[in-house]
Amino acid sequence: MGTTAHAQVDEPPPLSAYGALPGVEMAAISPSGANIAVLTTIGETRLVLFLGPDMRPIRKMEVGDSKVRSLDWIGDDRVLLQTSKTEDLWGFTVDKAELYSAHIVPVTYDGEVTTVFKRTRRLVDAVFGSHGIRFVDGRWQAYFGALELRRDRRDGYTFNHSRPYLYRFTVDTQDATRIDTATGEDHYRDWLVGSSGGVAAVFDLARSDGDWKISNSQGVAIAEGTHAAGRVGLVGLGYEGASVIYYLRDEDGVSHWYEVPLAGGASTPFLPDADVDRLYFDTPTGRLTGYLDAEDGPVFADPTHQKAVSRIRKAFAKYDMRMVDWTPNFEKVLVRTSGNGDSGSWYVVDLGTMRADGFAYERMRILPDMVGPISTFSYTAADGLDLDGILTLPPGREAKNLPLVMLPHGGPHAHDREQFDWWAQAFASRGYAVFQPNFRGSTNREQAFKLAGYGEWGRKMQTDLSDGLAALAEKGIVDPDRACIVGASYGGYAALAGVTLQQGLYQCAVAVAPVSDIGDMYNEDYRASGRQRITKAALLEQLGPKDRWDAVSPRRHADQADAPIMLIHGEDDTVVPYDHSYKMADKLKDAGKPYELVTLNGEDHWLSLSSTRQQMLEAAVGFVEKHNPAD
Question: What is the C-alpha separation between 482 and 402, in angstroms, rounded?
């Protein structure tokens, strides 16, 4: 870990340079490599920009504050754009839901943007799961879960049930065709679509008892069993498209992947010795092409692809690099980098010429010397467990006795890595060291490390954070008397726990969309599932026995808060309801403890809107600067 100071930065960028949505949010390359679709912001306008072979715009479409969730090319002429919107619901197990819509956008020809299922009266004009894009009989087909409406007595349509059917949407004609039925009540169903456009495999799970089955296109069960917590499901088709990959958690809670032939036969372990972050699939066929190994990077079955990957990794070895998209022949690859001296850059790599051309930058106002140094800091927990986290230092300052912002990630099953993090860098630009610990329960190591977090909310997962603070102080990097804790979602819970369940560690806490009561979270998730047994089992597996929850629920210990608390919450949060912050604020008020409650109007759990994301950052940084000044 390096601690050498960079050149002094006289004036840091405004917080809006960090808090605004990045100049590029996502990008995709067409199959021929001729065109690129970019979700970007130019000036004050947020739009999808389509670039042609000479990198000049061929079309643009303004999207405003739409929550764009994905961009996928359909051939070289059209893009599938998926968006979501928070909707109020009545008569369901939840009061609000994030509903997704899919839109077909013509790029290289004149035409209107069409919404999938919009013209089909018998279907809800939303999608409930995406199952691939295929080219069948000369036509592009997209596959989605859809909710059917039933006819009422007035020759209209009314809601039937919330179990999706599998539908094929023909892109050029907009015809919607059902290709498989919904599952029965109290069951869950998922599908894999084969290269010919037919159903290759169906997964069924009984929510009541965890009985599960995978069937092939002939309806023959090729794998089945029971898992009380429902920890089983489809992963995808195998390399040749003749097998199914699925996951199953064993009695010790460790997930394993298995492969079974579609024609039937024994299930065998799949990649048992690899540390897989994600799998790569071929869009037109749905077949597996490779995977991302946590240590070794991308691994492809095709040797020419693997050779190309090695060259790309070598070219960008200095940065956190992700191959975002590529052409089927692997001649062109979209690459995103960030890290030390890089606030986010996008390249198109032409492997024929071995040329990498930068075509976009995420934060033009944050220059290389304004990026705070990023490194991995390793330490040992009190019980001897080896841990690490990402340390971001303020630009131009010596790494000695710095004020600290402890910034635990959400999830809690996630992890931080050495990349440009807009939230961490914003605090670093104001003179703070920022530590993002990969506490037990994180996903940066083997599954046993993730499972070590089960039942440890507010316990060892919490002390992993304070052990990191102590280790940084022992090295002389931070001043332990000048620390605040900040986080979102699970990280928000940890921030509240840091000043209620623990005392004497932090000068303030900022909790964004936090869980404040574990019992409430359990009841909300259980209710949302329709009170299914497998959901109950899965939650108890993760959270531990109910009789231990009150002891680690910050709301139950609001009267023990020993530092000022800021609560920030989006009113349209469908993951952690706004009530978690509202009720926590009420308890703090009753206890006479200092707090502030900031409501983000129209915002969801993921801070999807630029204006409210900036509102959050301004409030959080201002609160920390007030209660724990950097100078």
Answer: 8
Residue 446 confidence (pLDDT): 82
Please state, in angstroms and rounded to a whole number, the distance separating the CA atoms of residues 544 and 241.
Answer: 40
Buried b (16+ CB within 10 A) or exposed e, 156-195: eeeeeeebbbbbbbebeeeebeebbebbeeebbbbbbbbb
Name the residue with tokens 């715009």: 57
Block residue for tokens 């024609």: 263
7: confidence class by pLDDT, cuts 50, 70, 90: very low
d(CA 412, CA 192): 29
pLDDT digits (tens, 9 = 90+) for 507-555: 999 999 999 999 999 888 777 767 777 778 888 888 889 999 999 999 9
DSSP 397-416: S-SSSEEEEE---SSSS---
* 14 contacts: CB under 8 Å, gap ≥ 6: 365
The rounded distance, in Å, linking the Cα atoms of 335 and 294 is 17
Assessment of whether the complete model's pTM goes beyond 0.85: yes
As a whole number, the mean pLDDT across the chain is 91
Count of beta carbons in the 10 Å neighbourhood of residue 578:
18
What are the CA-CA distances from residue 397 to residues 257, 374, 403 (Å)?
47, 13, 11
